[in-house]
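TODO from last week: model DUF2975 domain-containing protein.
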Amino acid sequence: MKSNTQKTTTGFKAFNTIYFIGSAFAALKLLDYLQWTVQLVRKWQLPEAPFFSKVNLSGLDNEMSLTAYLVFALAYILAFSCIILGLYQLKNLSKFFENNAIFQNEISNAFLKAGKCFLVFAFGTFAIDVALLLWNLTNSRVIDLLSTELIVFTILGYIMFFLADVFKKGIHLQEENELTI
């Protein structure tokens, strides 16, 4: 019995470690985006670092206004912050699992919220990149719209939706079981 409890707490410790590492990487990336945007606003000229979109804007004949860069940068920052919100929702789940409160409505709702956050990020960055590409209508369309992060967070978002449904079904089965007894 003790080894089973130890395995469970080891899993929670591993999840917490992954959560903190993922949150740190997401926060660092978000800080890079914020730093680029602040440099743009302070000097009102493009920073030396390239824009962080998947669309390659180097070597374009047509110029994009600094205001447009600012709008796209803020949209990217908003979409990227959804990763941190999704990770936070998953962190809240570990509290329920540690207390063995598995089939609760809050767990299903947290999975649903995390899935929505990850999908907002995936489709949001995709939409921003497409809008940026359309904005720049150029002959050199070097773009990686189906990037790894788009695919990963799309799959992760749908997995969260699936888990939300599983836990809703578990809640229903547990309620039926309690009524039977």
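Done. The chain has one domain: 2-180.
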